[in-house]
C-alpha cells in the first residue's frame, strides 16, 4: 500500500512539474506578445486611419492657416496618443525593455509622416498669409518633433524654409551663401 501512495505522489509531482514547465514555456513563447495589443492601423482607437486620412486631405486642400493648424494638431495628437498607448510593457519585460523595438507602422502611409507633412503645409500657408511667427514656430516644431532619421526629409524641408525666411531679411549675398550651405548639408547628411 505504501508503494501505491509513493507512486501516485511521484506521478503527482511529475504532473505538477509538467504543468509548471508548460506554464513557463507559454510565458516564454508569449513574451513577444506581452505588450498591449496594438491595433492594426497603428493609431489610437478614437482616430481611425480613415479619419486621419480625411484630416490630412483637409489639411492639404485648405488655404486657411488656422484651419490647417487645427488639422495639424489633431494629427499630431492622434499620433502621440497611439505611440504612448502601444508601448506599455508588462512588468516581466522591464529588464529587456531597451531591447524591444517600437512596432512599425503596418500601413502603406505612416500617420506620423502625414502629421509632419500637414505641419509643413500649415507653415507654408502661414508664410504665404504673412504670419511669419506662426510659420517659424511650425517649421521649428517639425525639426524638433520629427528628428528621427526616417523623417529627415521633413526636417530638411523645415530647415530650408526657415533659412529662406531668414534670407528674406538679409542682404542677397549672405542669403545665397546660407541657402547653398543648407543645400550642401542636405546632400551630405544621409538618413
Walk me through the structure.
The protein has helices spanning 2-30, 49-61, 65-86, 111-128, 132-145, 152-167, 172-188. α5 (132-145) packs antiparallel against α6 and α6 (152-167) packs antiparallel against α7 (172-188). The chain is mostly helical. The chain contains 7 helices and no strands. The longest helix has 29 residues, at 2-30.
Strand residue content? under 5%
Amount of helix: 55-70%
Mean pLDDT: 75
Q: Which outline best applies? A: elongated
Radius of gyration based on Cα positions = 27 Å
Span between termini: 76 Å
Total strands: the figure is 0
Q: Structural class from helices and strands?
A: mainly alpha
Q: Tally the helices: what do you get?
A: 7
User: How would you sum up the major sheet?
Assistant: none
Order of helices and strands: HHHHHHH
Which regions have little confidence, pLDDT < 50, spanning 5+ residues? 34-45, 85-89
What would you say about this model in short?
The protein is mostly helical and 191 residues long. The chain is built from 7 helices and no strands. 68% of the residues lie in helices and 0% in strands.
Relevant terms:
mainly alpha; elongated
List the helices and strands and how they pair.
Layout: H1 2-30, H2 49-61, H3 65-86, H4 111-128, H5 132-145, H6 152-167, H7 172-188
